[in-house]
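User: Some background: our group keeps a shared notebook of sequences we're curious about, and every so often someone picks one and asks for a predicted structure to add to the entry. Today it's my turn. The entry only has the sequence so far, pasted here. Could you supply the structure so I can complete it?
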Amino acid sequence: MFPSSEDHIFPETNLTWRILNHANANGYAVGAYNCYNTDGIMAVIKAAERQRSAAIIQLFPWTMHFQGPEFIRYVVNAAHAAAVPVAVHLDHCIKPEDVELALTLPFDSIMVDASIADEESNIRFCKSIVQRAQALNITIEAEMGRIEGCEDGLPTVDMEGVMTRPEDAENFVRQSGVHFLAPSFGNIHGGYPPGGAENAWDLPRLSAIGGLVSSRTPLVLHGTHPVPDDLFRKTIACGVRKINLNRTVRDEYTRFIADNAATLELTVLQEEGVKVYLRSIERMMGVMGSAGRY
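Assistant: Of course. Here's the predicted structure to add to the notebook entry:
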């Protein structure tokens, strides 16, 4: 376990920063699990406690609007009450008004996604949010380049994917002050074309980016379905410390609910569904090397 946050100043006081920098110092990655309901929240917390692993619960801006601020406060309180470090992160916050709302809520970290803008505009916007978020003890993740595809709240962009140049990544981190960087190296949201991630990913590019920035700015992996275990491990060797996971850990749960919703009592369906969900999460904790760290 890392020392009490009371012994440090920002960003060391921030839970996401402490989780990912512990991973950075010890050469493993932490899962950031996109959750949509209480089943997902409970599955992440229970899996983290059972595996003695840190974890990050990820919510989309959709949650701020559909489930509301009080739901987010519930999630944060439940996460922070866990027996191991569990942070709460807002993923793909694109609209400026959503960023403003997020800064009024107790997130540990926020992904400010201005990647559709040109690089200088992205830097300026991220820098302005970093400066404001510091006073709230919130760390900021940014995306550089364009990670194509479609995810909840993230539009499909009809443009040629722009991959992150290693030298530009170093400049981006230095000028913007962001704490975590999601580079574009052929990774795609929402599914890969024939040949899969193995053919789409430019790992030498990712390794070069990691060599320049990952010692002080942990890298984040977006676009992880479907991806084989050995490919996840290769990205960790390149400096990836936060791995976003959605369908990779959610599909078995979704199938279980669909297959049993008409026959099981709701209480039993939820209890058994959480068990299915957490087993998928536990497996990925082993793949990423986060199990047993706490």
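Suggested note for the entry: The two ends are 6 Å apart (CA to CA). Confidence is low (pLDDT under 50) at residues 149-160.
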